């Protein structure tokens, strides 16, 4: 079981008197949006793993409602340079997309995911690539967890564009980096799964993608200590009216902040907020054609982050069929940390073992492992403040048909923002 306590993303939402489209006498629309798949097609992925990912993506999209007035799908490869396999609207049915995904050729090269994410924002979510204005946008990134370049800034740019980010990790993973990259809540948008077990999450992932494509009310799609991104369904058009968005904080008595937005808007980001504070939000549609009920939301910003740095690098060595040594850096002393705990759990399911390591030490030996088995290792630093920081990596014990004895590997880490 993954240590989600290291994520600690608590979000309290309270919805009040939300008018539905049915109450307004309007038909419920079919899901509509632009769905992009970003596949790791680099040399870090074996041909077998890439073929399993192709099969998974094909099965995922086959039942989706595709078409000009519904969903559109595109596919981009991650490699030394991003490569567009097909753009939005090029294929108008699920089976056609499934065939196109299966026919894709692995690109190989480096894993420049950050470059591919920037390409997605500038070149794919654009009208020239078939993307549409005013519709929900979703990106599904399937990765082995390792990137040769930074993914944080381009991923944040996509979120600011209103793109919902799903991540499926099948390999070595920096848990904190992927958690920061995925949309909130992280447990719904970030999946760790063995490449042979991708079919297990297909139905759940398909359902949450469709939910993201058809939001039914005002909601907070991204929350930090200083910002809140809001999204809502399209209730008006550019010609039928406009919105007034109001925000009032519990620590800001007096008049609320107001922002007027055009009728075709479906999102807005409030910045410059106070950490760990409740805010009441009101979305007021103004239209001369019909009455549209206002929508209300309460959201709480996250506490201010501190500069406590946990493990930044994991090294696995001396791997044997039933044991291995795991080391990490930096080694934190007892003046900063209470200690570490190391967890190792089989990716295909089963009990995880845990070892406690005193502060000031940065290495331990895991024993009692199973041969030819893929494990997810997680090293968590426990600070005196009560906070935790974690880093994860995938490793496979030797002597198995699907596993090779791992060479010592170094996984770069990332501090929490």
TrEMBL record:
Signal sequence, start to end: 1-22
UniProt-annotated location(s): Secreted, Extracellular space, Extracellular matrix, Basement membrane
Pfam families the UniProt entry points to: fn3, VWA
Keyword Glycoprotein annotated: yes
Domain VWFA: 34-209
Domain Fibronectin type-III, chain residue ranges per copy: 214-305, 310-400
GO CC entries: basement membrane
Superkingdom of source: Eukaryota
Keywords annotated in UniProt: Basement membrane, Disulfide bond, Extracellular matrix, Glycoprotein, Phosphoprotein, Repeat, Secreted, Signal
Keyword presence, Glycoprotein: yes
InterPro entries the record matches: ECM_Assembly_Org (IPR050525), FN3_dom (IPR003961), FN3_sf (IPR036116), Ig-like_fold (IPR013783), VWF_A (IPR002035), vWFA_dom_sf (IPR036465)
SMART domains: FN3, VWA
Quaternary structure (record): Homodimer or homomultimer; disulfide-linked. Interacts with HSPG2.
Function of the protein: Promotes matrix assembly. Involved in the organization of skeletal muscles and in the formation of neuromuscular junctions.
Name of protein: von Willebrand factor A domain-containing protein 1
